[in-house]
Amino acid sequence: MALTQNNLSPLWSKRWPAPAKLNLMLRIVGRREDGYHLLQTVFQFVEWCDWIRFYPAEEGQVHLRKPTPGVLEADDITIKAANLLKRQTGCKQGVVIDLEKNLPMGGGLGGGSSDAATTLLVLNKLWDLQLTRSELLQLGLSLGADVPVFVNGQAAWAEGVGEKLENLILPEPWFVIIKPDCHINTGEIFSAPDLTRNSKSIKIADFMAGQRQNDCLEAVKCRYSLVRDALEALSGFSEARLTGTGACVFAQFDTKDAALNAYQALKENWQVFLSKGINESSLHTTLYADS
């Protein structure tokens, strides 16, 4: 049961963003002995996001205000993140998590990872745990390879399994994002025999000069015709690319008007979204503005 809000920080019950990310490039440059792929990728955030509210709870309980359809509460990554913080710090406090899910699951937008990062960062503040950013990054990595970039909160060049981050300052274009009506199994793509796993490593300057391939693209296209169709539809307006292993595809535009034109043309036949690229996560903008 949630406690009353009397004498509590106004940050309790505040609506916190958990923004989506796009992989602007993804190269697979090797494989570790444990089977994890070694990557080079570039992350940028967009304004489109999930929203999360946190309410204090009695007796150290951690639970959801309402379950996410198709996901057991114990398996929800926000619950895992909150319980991980409690185990790591010995915190006895509890929380009710109210998740407003807008980002599609299985879309390659990092929605679950972003939800986990928002939970780690906000509860670290609300529970006054005083863990450092580095400590939260390590906790995030134990929850998933994409969680650290959301904890870090800056557009970044990433290597390793995605945890070695170097902040970047990128143009902040408008993006049109199509979510095909299919769910990509990431494990299926990373285990595909035809997946490229030996791309040559490049440098940040090479990416900036235009090397923006996604090594998962061909394996996804040959298995998911809806992704292939979405890429074709979007490419009529700008270069269409796959984020992560998909299913979402995206194209960038220099102006909002150009992006809106593509959005309006596509929305009758596709689930399509228009969002601004941002280099600083909206969570960080909000969280540290309140510091």
Describe the structure.
The protein is of the alpha+beta class. The chain is 31% helix and 26% strand. It has ten helices and ten strands. It has helices at residues 77-89, 111-126, 133-143, 147-152, 186-190, 204-208, 217-221, 225-234, 256-266, 282-289; strands at residues 16-31, 37-57, 62-64, 94-100, 156-160, 164-167, 174-178, 241-242, 249-253, 272-278. Strands 1, 2, 3, 4, 5, 6, 7, 8, 9 and 10 form a ten-stranded mixed beta sheet that branches. A hairpin with a 6-residue loop joins strand 8 and strand 9. Helix 1 runs parallel beside helix 2 and helix 2 (111-126) runs antiparallel to helix 3 (133-143). Residues 1-6 have low confidence and may be disordered.
CATH architecture of the largest domain: 2-Layer Sandwich
| SSE-based structural type | alpha+beta
Please report the distance between the alpha carbons of the first and last residues: 28 Å
Radius of gyration, rounded? 19 Å
Helix content: 25-40%
Biggest sheet descriptor: 10 strands, mixed
* Average pLDDT taken over every residue: 94
- Counted beta strands: 10
CATH topology name of the largest domain, in short, is Ribosomal Protein S5, domain 2
Give the overall shape. globular
Unreliable stretches: 1-6
The CATH class name of the largest domain reads Alpha Beta
H/E element string? EEEHEHHHEEEHHHHEEHEH
User: Treating each run of at least 4 consecutive H or I residues as one helix, how many helices?
Assistant: 10
Can you describe this structure in just a few lines?
The chain is an alpha+beta fold. It contains 10 helices and 10 strands.
